[in-house]
Amino acid sequence: MAMDINFTGTSNNLIDNMGTRQLTETKAAVAEEKSKVTELEKAEQENKDLAEKKSDNQELADITNDLNDMTALMRKGLAFKLDDDSGQNVISVMDVDSGDIIRQIPNAEALELSKKLAEVAGILLNTEA
What we know:
Structural class: alpha+beta
Radius of gyration: 33 Å
Number of helices: 2
Shape: elongated
Strand content: 5-15%
Low-confidence stretches: none
Mean pLDDT: 76
Helix content: 55-70%
Distance between the termini: 75 Å
Oligomer: single chain
Number of strands: 3
């Protein structure tokens, strides 16, 4: 009479299921950590880009002030400024005696158009609901 002995009983299946569950949970935790690291890296890069942009704007403002000082010494009717709304450089040719603007590059209409286009682009590209 032969007797079969089965070593793959329910306890082994339970251990295998627990191991699979732990492995799945570990993989999910690792994926979540990778996602958090990626989000942090993106945030750091955005902060770095913003800091560079601010320093560039400060440099432009400093150069603009230097150019204005230089033209004031030469008594020429030029004014250099940075438009606050669009961030574009604006050059004005002025009458020294009266202070009237003879010509502006880019002109006021172009600056207004640029501002409106930026608003429209912001609305079109807004992905938040």
